[in-house]
Inverse folding.
């Protein structure tokens, strides 16, 4: 890789050992992928949970703090695994909660703004078109590339941290024009109305493509008018089900004014049709059962204010069934507003628990099975439906309205 | 096809030191979050073809990767407890695996031909040479 004078200075230790080590790691990564140079990043978003890094990662952060290391660009934290505020209700281990709190304090000392959110693009930082960023959490990456036209690869914890410390990232993958060109055409014929449908669409596309390095272009019969929340569920689900980092929607996303523009003027390598049957097939992966509804979770990604408002409206003053637990996760920022607006109170009155700064599938769900006996979850999130399977839960994917009915009745509508 | 003719495979890109160790071959893409138990260094996902097998010190072969950014920290943590694999070889990998391997100092090789995963058997002694972009079967395990 070609290094600028500044990069040579960083490598020589002028920005401290932390930055020098980080740059060395980035050079290796860049060399692996054939990057010719670094690009400056405008913002870093890091996944740095205790669950994922264990003691070794914790020690890594301690050392950086001891060395006086500081981030060079704005730097935010993704969802964490524990929420001190609801830990006692959800029986999260007090020691884990405390230790994760300390880990995030370390990250703050490096300069991270610990917003603990996976919807940074809705609430904290909206990169401009073409801006290079280094984001972790796959859903944020898919949203940044696809919807905002910003440029990032999946930057896992250590890679995002390195970018924060050096202010740059190697230019490979989705930083390059060539990688962003669509090669698969997806004709969407299905009727899409709820955010769960957008998630199911993301699941169908993800499962059909199943490759980080491939960007599909979605083409609807009529140009759709998705909301930010619709696109959030599409992006998060496409990443969760298919490891996708980017998609286009003709007439909607910025690099797809036309089908031909998204395809870079080439013919697609293949064309996929997604109709109502293909969407139904995603729902059919997570079918309702005759069992009582024990758990209804709205999460993955954290909810926007509009999603929270809609839950309150759908509940319409009704209460969650006595043997059913309803959980809503959102960010600290959205919770503060939801509180001011009375949404939190309405949810709590209904018996729901509002959890902040985390996401259900990383909250040690196996431990909740031990504590509460939960083995099944009803959700409108196609991402959660997929990911929670790893914690041995059976998911039921339903549209938002049906989830609320299930929560209120304690049984499937 | 003679054994001799199939003992060296070329990869597309690679990084890390050369190592030699026993092979363990997965027919399924690798999901660090869900496939393994980090405490024991074993494959733990119920129904996984390698369920119950230890991966510590082995050269692991996978067709691909599944899952998110959690894989970035996993190998570093495993390495600190001497449970890390000796090397990772993929038909097709993603940045997370590469970032995580580099942090932990584990060699990673990408773009090995699909035939390799049919040829390399569990227990074969394999040598990976990132600089030469190659994977060699040094000694065959006994046929099962």
């Amino acid at each position: 890789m070609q290094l600028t004078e500044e990069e040579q200075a960083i490598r020589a230790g002028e920005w401290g050992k932390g930055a020098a080590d980080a740059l060395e790691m980035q050079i290796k990564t860049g060399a692996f992928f054939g990057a010719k140079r670094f690009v400056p990043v405008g913002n870093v978003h890091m996944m740095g949970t205790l669950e994922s890094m264990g003691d070794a990662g914790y020690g890594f952060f301690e050392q950086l703090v001891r060395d006086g290391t500081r981030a060079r660009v704005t730097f935010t934290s993704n969802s964490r695994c524990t929420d001190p505020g609801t830990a006692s209700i959800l029986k999260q281990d007090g020691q884990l909660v405390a230790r994760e709190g300390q880990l995030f304090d370390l990250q703050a000392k490096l300069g991270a703004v610990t917003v603990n959110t996976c919807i940074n693009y809705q609430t904290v930082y909206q990169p401009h078109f073409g801006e290079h960023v280094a984001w972790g959490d796959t859903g944020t990456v898919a949203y940044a590339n696809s919807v905002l036209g910003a440029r990032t690869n999946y930057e896992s914890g250590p890679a995002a941290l390195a970018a924060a410390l050096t202010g740059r990232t190697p230019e490979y993958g989705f930083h390059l024009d060539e990688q962003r060109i669509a090669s698969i055409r997806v004709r969407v014929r299905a009727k899409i109305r709820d955010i769960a449908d957008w998630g199911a669409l993301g699941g169908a596309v993800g499962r059909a493509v199943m490759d980080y390095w491939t960007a599909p272009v979605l083409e609807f019969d009529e140009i759709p008018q998705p909301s930010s929340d619709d696109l959030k569920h599409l992006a998060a689900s496409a990443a969760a089900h298919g490891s996708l980092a980017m998609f286009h929607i003709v007439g909607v996303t910025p690099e797809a004014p036309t089908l031909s523009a998204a395809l870079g003027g080439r013919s697609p390598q293949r064309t996929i049709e997604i109709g109502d049957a293909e969407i139904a097939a995603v729902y059919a992966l997570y079918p309702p059962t005759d069992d009582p509804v024990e758990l209804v979770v709205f999460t993955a990604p954290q909810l926007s204010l509009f999603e929270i408002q809609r839950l309150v409206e759908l509940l319409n003053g009704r209460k969650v069934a006595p043997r059913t637990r309803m959980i809503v996760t959102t960010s600290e920022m959205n919770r503060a507003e939801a509180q001011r607006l009375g949404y939190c109170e309405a949810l709590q009155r209904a018996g729901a628990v509002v959890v902040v700064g985390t996401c259900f599938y990383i909250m040690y769900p196996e431990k909740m099975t031990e504590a509460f006996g939960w083995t099944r979850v009803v959700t409108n999130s196609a991402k959660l439906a997929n990911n929670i399977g790893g914690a041995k839960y059976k998911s039921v994917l339903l549209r938002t309205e049906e989830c609320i009915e299930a929560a209120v009745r304690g049984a499937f509508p | 096809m003679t054994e001799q003719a199939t003992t060296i495979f070329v990869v597309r890109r690679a990084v890390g030191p050369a190592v030699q160790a026993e092979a363990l071959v997965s027919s399924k893409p690798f999901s660090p979050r869900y496939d393994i138990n980090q405490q024991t260094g074993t494959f733990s996902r119920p129904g996984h073809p390698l369920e119950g097998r230890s991966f510590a010190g082995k050269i692991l072969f996978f067709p691909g990767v599944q899952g998110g950014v959690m894989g970035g920290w996993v190998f570093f943590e495993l390495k600190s407890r001497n449970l890390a694999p000796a090397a990772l070889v993929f038909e097709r990998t993603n940045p997370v695996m590469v970032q995580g391997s580099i942090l932990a100092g584990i060699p990673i090789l990408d773009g090995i031909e699909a035939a390799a995963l049919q040829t390399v058997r569990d227990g074969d002694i394999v040598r990976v040479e990132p600089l030469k972009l190659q994977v060699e079967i040094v000694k065959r395990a006994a046929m099962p």
